[in-house]
Amino acid sequence: MRGLDRRRSAFTLIESIMAVVVISIMIPPTLVLIRDAQVRRASPILASRARWLATEKLEDVIADRHSATRGWTYLTNASYPAETPVNGFAQFSRSVSIVQTGHDLATSGTGYKRVTVTVSWMDPRHGSATLSLATVLTDFSTP
User: Fold this and answer.
1) Closest by alpha carbon to 115, among 141, 76, 85?
2) Measured CA angle at 78 (ends 73, 82), to 5 deg
3) Whose CA is closest to 117, among 101, 141, 97?
4) Contact, 121 vs 91, CB < 8 A?
5) 28 beta partners
6) Residues 6+ apart with CB under 8 A from 75
7) Euclidean distance between CA atoms 29 and 23, whole angstroms
8) What is the rounded average pLDDT of the residues 47-51?
9) Which residues, in sequence order, are CB contacts of 120 under 8 Å at separation 6+?
10) For the segment 30-42, what is each residue's pLDDT rounded down to a tens digit?
11) What is the pLDDT of residue 30?
């Protein structure tokens, strides 16, 4: 009896080979799933940073509009050169577009400027990605 118990408590060669085969089959798909999860996690983080960078620049333009030293006439495309890359954020680039329009915001005119900030980056999942934020500024001062 003791001889039988001893043989049953140890792994056989076939059991060891089966364990190696099962592990070798399971590891590659597991590594692919881990890599895909990291890429999916990075996409929303990059989009959030892009939105923050766009908001930051839009707030700079709005502050320049209301500044006593800069004001309405400072709001031109030449005042806001493209940033490629954005300082401190190497994988992002940012540009500002300022278009003077009439009251309908579509035709040319005066009194309104449509400001659009566009941030571009490389998304590991979808390739090139962009995000744009826009606002309208007026030449009319508030009382």
Assistant:
1) 76
2) 135
3) 97
4) yes
5) none
6) 61, 64, 65, 98, 113, 115, 137
7) 11
8) 92
9) 92, 93, 94, 128, 129, 130
10) 887 777 766 666 6
11) 82
Question: Residue 83 has what DSSP assignment?
Answer: B
Q: Give the Cβ contact number of residue 96 at 10 Å.
A: 21
Structure tokens at 75: 């709001």
Q: What is the pLDDT of residue 23?
A: 87
**Using an 8 Å Cβ cutoff, are 132 and 117 in contact?**
yes
Kindly report, residue by residue over 86-126, the tens digit of the pLDDT.
Answer: 999 999 999 999 999 988 888 888 889 999 999 999 877 76
pLDDT tens digits for 55-90?
999 999 999 999 999 999 999 999 999 999 999 999
Q: Which residue has the tokens 């766009």?
A: 54
- What are 16-22's contacts with CB under 8 Å, separation 24+? none
Looking at residue 78, the DSSP 8-state letter turns out to be G
Identify which of 33, 65, 49 has the alpha carbon closest to the alpha carbon of residue 131. 49
